[in-house]
Amino acid sequence: MYEARFPDPDRLAGRWAEDCLRRHAAGPRVLDMGCGTGRDAAQLHAAGRTVTGADLSEAMLAHARVHHPGPAYVRADLCGFDLGRAAFDAVVCLDSSLLYCHTNDQLDGFLASCRRALAPGGLLVAEMRNGAYFLGRTDLLDTPSDNAFSWQGTAYRSTTTLSVDRTAQLLRRTRVWTADDGDEGDGGPSSVEQRSAWRLLFPQELRHFLAAHGFEVLELHDGPGPRTEPPWRDGQLPGSTTDADRLHVVARLISSH
Question: So where does this one cross the membrane (predicted)?
């Protein structure tokens, strides 16, 4: 259902990540942290890299092993993981996965884990929402967004409401999934409410955290990227602003201590 609701038929996210890795001459061993269904990990594998996909969800990992074979898939928590010292040449963290580190301690845990996992000179490539976008802007908060799609013969609708928790510096999301499975016996379509949140990170704040963990920022920009409008195209170089609603970072590990 995730892939039906959030399709990426052109594998833009994986191709964008591969472009970053190639432009900065990353080695072949890649950890896709927060890999979800595995489609980005599989894209990086298809590009010739040795990929490990890691996620906290066993259901996502089970789907990945069946539908996106090639990478190795392991269960790990991005807020703190140990998959071997200097075992990777790059860590990739796409689609706001990094923002599930809600607290400073969790973010420190993620970056310390990346530092341990990366070989000297290794890269961290991440793509996420941009906290700075919400300074004075409410367009994403004012009206719930609706999306309708079909999966395995059933019609689904998702209604998403976003709100800003300024004290916790979180973007909170409530999403109601409704399935019209044709069974009117219970009085109507069935629904499930899902609650989650992302850390609202600001560009200079992210620079500070990365520097504190021994990373040099090579790129930090709002686009183009796989989820920008217009989306990234092959060969496009990174921009120079950090004002729009997505944030992209490439950083190199310069100190493992």
Answer: none
Nearest 5°: phi and psi at 45? -60, -45
Q: How far apart are CA 196 and CA 57, in angstroms?
A: 14
Residue 198 in tokens:
């992302």
Query: Which tokens is 157 given?
Result: 């609708």
Give the residues across from 17 on adjacent strands.
Answer: none
Q: What is the pLDDT of residue 190?
A: 85
Cα–Cα distance, 203 to 187 (Å, whole number): 48
Give the DSSP per-residue string, 148-192: EEEETTEEEEEEEEEEEETTTTEEEEEEEEEEE-S--TTSS-EEE
pLDDT value at residue 96: 98
Average pLDDT for 18-46:
98
At residue 148, φ and ψ (nearest 5 deg) are: -115, 140
Q: List C-alpha distances in Å: 233 to 215, 221, 237, 249.
A: 27, 15, 9, 17
Residue 257: the pLDDT is 62
What pLDDT digit, counting tens, does each position of 151-189 carry? 999 999 999 999 999 999 999 999 999 998 665 555 567
- What domains can you pick out in the chain, each with its CATH number? 2-130+201-253 (3.40.50.150), 134-199 (2.20.25)
The three-state secondary structure class of 117 is: helix
User: Per-residue pLDDT for 147 more than 90?
Assistant: yes
Closest CA to 218 of 196, 250, 189: 250
Task: Return d(Cα 216, Cα 194) in angstroms, integer.
Answer: 37
